[in-house]
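Most newcomers find our protein records easier to grasp once they have seen one. Sequence and backbone structure share a record, each on its own labelled line. To make this concrete, we reproduce a full record directly below:
***
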Amino acid sequence: MGDISRPCTVWLGSETGILKGVSVSQKKAFNFSNSTLSREQEVRALCWADPAETEVLVASVDGAVKTFSVEKGVFTDARRCGEPGEGSFVGLAVLNDTSLATCTDSGALRVWKEESGEPVLSLSAGADVCRMKQNPSHRHKVATGGKNTCLKIWDLETPDKPVFTAKNLRDDWLALQQPHWVKDIAFIPGSDKVVTCTGYHQVHVYDPSSPQRRPVMEAKFGEYPLTVLSLPAAGGSVVVGNTHGQIAVLDLRKGLVRGCLKGLAGGVRGLQCHASQPSVASCGLDRFLRIHSLEDRKVQHKVYLKSRLNCLLLASRPLEDAVDDASQEVKEEEEEEDEVWATMEEVEEKPKRKTSEEVERRPEESLKKRKKD
């Protein structure tokens, strides 16, 4: 199984509880599961367990967090990080070598240690939380937000209160409070800013370093709820997807739409830009993994995975960098076959012997020829 899992550069979680690995170089998909398939094993969140990306953490609806070894191709460990009745996971993050942070849609934000079966830290992030994301530059900081739950940034080393709590948008022209619904969050590298997308097709940028707690930039895309977002490696823009399979690239400075990515036929549930390449991977209800180029916005790869997909995780190495061992074996076998055929002697083809029917027809044909003459 390790030979199958090592070339995989894209990992996806399905509604049926299967962890799916896709090898872009081989253009193949593989299923990994250690139990019977059921909706109770539905995968809701994925993250890397270590910087070397040798293990993947898989969070399921039943409250279990399983460890999958990419090197071995099997699940090596499982821990209980909640009960099914406490809500589904909306975020998963590794704080250090021994600590793990989880968050459920009920707002239970917890920190777990390897040696302890109980959380060492538990706090409430609010009701109806839709997403929890980690700051990649400061791993002890996470952001949460949800329906009627404003964006909050937590420092898990000093968890007494949030280090930043966003303020709602200004009232509309009728003096009515505008609803807010944070669906996804991302920390902008090289700054303290945070970008969010909402269920009201809005993109907001917050700057915790400024005294202003309302968004410093607001943009809108389409008419349908935005579900996921991701930041390209080049910076200066954000990629968002909505419930109708539309993906767009928005400028973070001016709030304008740079372009749209086409080809999807269902709501987008998973979206991630590659760490170094100008490409973005997406998945969702149409059961396809698609990888688009951010330069010409064309589909580079498309793989059908048979199950509805909830989330995805990209490796930081180039997507097509994995060596295809199977193709090497085929090439070696072809070279050996060529050598065998080259050493064989060439046999001349002997004239074909005539059948008895052809012999019987011969006198009749000669007689007809004489009559013509």
Observations:
- The helical segments are 2-5, 325-343, 356-372.
- Residues 100 and 371 are 102 Å apart (CA to CA).
- The mean pLDDT is 87.
- The longest strand covers residues 74-80.
